[in-house]
Each structure stands twice: as structure tokens, then as C-alpha cells.
Amino acid sequence: MSRRLPGTFSQSQRLLFATNHHSCPAFSTRFLSTSRVNLERQECQVLVVGGGSGGCAMAAKLSSRLGENKVIVLEPEDKHYYQPMFTLIGGGMKRLDQSYRQMADVLPKKAKWVKEKAVEFDPDNNTVSTSGGKTIKYDFLVIATGLQLKYEKIPGLVEALETPESNVCSIYSPKYVDHVYECLRRTYKGNVIFTFPHCPIKCAGAPQKIAYISDHYFRKLGRRDKVNISYNTSLPVIFGVKHYADALMKLVKKRNITLNVNRNLVEVRHCDNVAVFEDLTKPGTLHEEKYSMLHVTPPMTAPDVVAKCKQLVTDNGFVDVHQETMQHNKYCNVFAIGDSASSPNSKTAAAAAAQSPVVFRNLMATIEGKSLTDKYDGYSSCPIVTGYNACILAEFDYTLTPVETFPFDQAKERYSMFFMKKELMPPLYWQLMMKGYWNGPALMRKMFSIVKFNKKQ
Ligand code: FAD
Ligand code: UQ1
After folding, report:
1. How far is the CA of 433 from the centre of ligand 2 (A)?
2. Atom nearest to 354 CA in ligand 2
3. What is the pLDDT of residues 120-132, one digit of tens each?
4. pLDDT above 70 as % of the chain
5. Is the dihedral of CA 279, 281, 283, 285 positive or negative?
6. Closest residue (by CA) to atom 22 of ligand 1?
7. Is 169 a catalytic residue?
8. What's the CA-to-centroid distance between 429 and ligand 2, angstroms?
9. Which residues does residue 310 pair with via DSSP β-bridges, in sequence order?
10. Structural domains in the chain, sorted by start
11. Active-site hit among 203, 309, 332, 391
12. What is the pTM of this model?
């Protein structure tokens, strides 16, 4: 690596010293060959596992550079959901059918789509086994399997979600998101409870976005006086970045939302309309609360198929990558992108977008036997929608320092940022990110900073 961390080996040095037995492709002429997808034996130059936000963006970039039939995408689902729209669906601002496209129309035409699940990774033999009984041999592997939702970890929750009269809902799954607005519509009084689980989740702002939207909904309909809203988070703070946390603390006060920190939902008894919480500062201390509406953010984990391959993952099951290069720490022909990577960024599509050029250039460098030059700085972004017409646009890096794109204070609620989130982000996602052309807003930020600098002169 030309720009490497002080006191560490470069990625290529480290890999040369430590992992020669993993046959790093960069040092083997076999991998410089122009191996094509072999339909019989299922071989490819690059295998992308997962065709969601990160996987599809990577497949688009790689198949465009490497040409037809060099890239396989392993993805079992028919539909590709634009998950950031789920929050707006919960508030009745968009419909579920606006949030997805057919997978066949989204995945790049130059890549071959295998519509199956990965069931076993074998990185020592450069193979992945599939649910349809195939063994796919790859030269390079990109893991983009996202996070799995674990509603079943909370006793009583799945039963509650599947009993529509129970007024328990969740924006996190396409299966349940439609029910959120229905719950809002039929709630006139009582305790409306929102939760944040005790684990890393995708879009850590979403559990409170839906609370702010709900607050605005009840105000608009004149029901707010009879509704108590509480936001219950397992975290010790409302948001991890102080600049935005300060603004959000003012907001919850102004909107009369009760904030309970260190509080984890452990059980739902929907027959009694009771949610049971554990006080994480006093483990074992339980606290029951009656609800008239309960919005749950489920626990999430790395997919089992990834987590069970111990050579590939860290202790908590995420793909063990270098946080700057996104290359695997043991297998130099393996990269990860998005929510299933161990890089300690906030897990969002915006983060996957910013990772995508880094993974692409570093993977190409590995293919060409060159040293890795690109670094991901942990950029992530969370448009915290605060109602039906306003949004705080949080953007930050690994150091939790704000890295703002626009030349104004983004911690302030603004209509412009709401408009961007609701109307501009979906086409940006489908037309640019999914086609491999959106690398995050770094370039925009540079342009705005030049404008800002010139204004100051
Ligand atoms: P995903 O996009 O989830 O894709 C993973 C893919 O892997 C899926 O297609 C899945 O079918 C496939 N897969 C899983 N297991 C296997 C297997 N065994 N074999 C093969 N394929 C497999 N991000 C933002 O940037 N801004 C937002 O405002 C925002 N809001 C959000 C609101 C909500 C309610 C939610 C749920 C998410 C939000 N996100 C937001 C987060 C964003 O959607 C994710 O971070 C992003 O989609 C992660 O991309 P990914 O590729 O890692 O995973
Ligand atoms: C972003 O890049 C992105 O990925 C496509 C999102 O997911 C939909 C976002 O929500 C945001 C806010 C960004 C960052 C983009 C800009 C223009 C600040």
C-alpha cells in the first residue's frame, strides 16, 4: 500500500508474510488469466455473494470493467428493496410497491445471476456452496450478505407482529412495514412505545425517525395530547455523534418525547398489551409497560452462513476485513462491503456507497498484483427524518466527527434535506448507485467546500 498506516505492514507485505498458504491471487499468474464463467463447473473470476445495495453496486462496477461473464452474483431473492424508503412507508408517505424493483432488472446484465443462497464458504479452496447444490469456484470473492433480522430473539414478538389487532409493528421488514401506518391510524390515546435493540443495527437513526414521524402524525390529527410517546434505546445516548445528539436531545424535549436510555425490550405479551424491558445498568431488573402501539426494531446479526465460517469472521460474526482497505485480514482474494463487514462504521447504504470505489480499486489492484492504494474513512450518513417536512442530515466518519456535504449546519431541521431524502435519494440509488456510478458524496463535498472557501476570501 502506498499510503499506509504508520507502524504496520502494508497489506501486501502482511499478506506475503502471513498468508502465502492462502494462495493470494495477486502473486499467482493463474489469476491474471481471463477465466470466464463456466456454466457447467460454475467458475468465475469474481463471485459477489448478495445482490443488495453493496453487492449490486460492486457487481455493476466489476462487470463493467472486467467484461461479460466474469462476475457471478449469488442472490436468492426475486425483489431488491430500497430499504431506506421503509421509514417513509411507515409514515404513510410512500407505498411498499414504490420501494422495490425486480432483482433481474437491477442486477447488471454483464454479470451472471445465480438465484440461490450461499450455504457454505470455503475460503481455503476458493469455493462457495449453494442451496441448489452447486459449488462455485472463484478467483476473488466479495461478501455483501447484509444483516439478518432476528425478531424471534424477543419472546412473543413474532406472534404479536403476526396478530394485526395487536398494534405491534416494525419498519425494518418488508413483511411488516405496511402495518406501521395502519397502527398509527388506529391509535388515538395511550402509550406509544419505540425501541432500539441491544446490538449493532443497520441505519441506527431509523428507530427514532419513525418516532418523530409518529409524533408529527399525532400532532397533525390533534391526538397528541392523549398520546404518550417514549423512545427506549439500549444505547447510553440518543445518537453516537455528539454534534447531532445535542440537536436531537433538544428535539425530544421540544416534542415531549420521553427518552429512556439503557433500556432493552426483552419480551412482548400482546394479549395484555405489555412490553417488558430490561434495565441494562442493573442486569436482570425488568420493567413492564402497557402500550397502545409498539414499534419494534429487531435484534440483528450477521447471516448465519457467514458467521459459521470461523476463518472468515471476527468473534461477532462479521467478515474480518481491514477497516481501511476492506480486504480480508487473512484471505487477500476476499473483500467485504456493506452491513456484513466488520469495519466499525455505522451500517447504511450511504456507507456501502462510500466503500464501493475503495473495494473496487483495491480488488482491481489485487487482481493486477499491485499494492492497495485506496482507503475508506468510515463515512456514513443518516438522514434523520423528523416529521412530514423536515430532516437532520447526519454525516460522519470513523472518528464520529461530522463530515458534512452541504455548506450549512446539517444538525438543523430542514425541508431541503427532507426533499432530498424523499424525492432525490431513490432515483440516485436506482440510477446511479445500482449502476456502479455513485461513490458517495465526497466529490460534492469537495465542490461545496471550494465554494465555501471562495466566499470567505
Ligand atoms: P443488503 O442491502 O441488505 O443486501 C444483502 C443481500 O444479501 C440481500 O439481497 C440478501 O437477499 C442477500 N443475502 C443474504 N444472505 C445471503 C446468502 N446466504 N446467499 C446469497 N445472498 C444472500 N441506509 C442509508 O444509507 N440511508 C437511510 O436512510 C437508510 N434507512 C434505512 C431504514 C431502514 C428501515 C432500513 C431497514 C435500512 C435503512 N438503511 C439506510 C440501511 C441500508 O438499507 C443498508 O445499510 C444497506 O442496504 C446495506 O447494504 P448491504 O448490501 O450490506 O445489505
Ligand atoms: C447516500 O449516499 C446514500 O446512499 C445512496 C443514502 O442512502 C440512500 C443516503 O441516505 C444518503 C444521505 C447518502 C449521502 C448523499 C448525500 C448527497 C449527502
Report:
1. 10
2. 2
3. 999 999 999 999 9
4. 90
5. negative
6. 50
7. no
8. 8
9. none
10. 11-147+302-367 (3.50.50.60), 149-300 (3.50.50.60), 380-456 (no CATH)
11. 203
12. 0.93
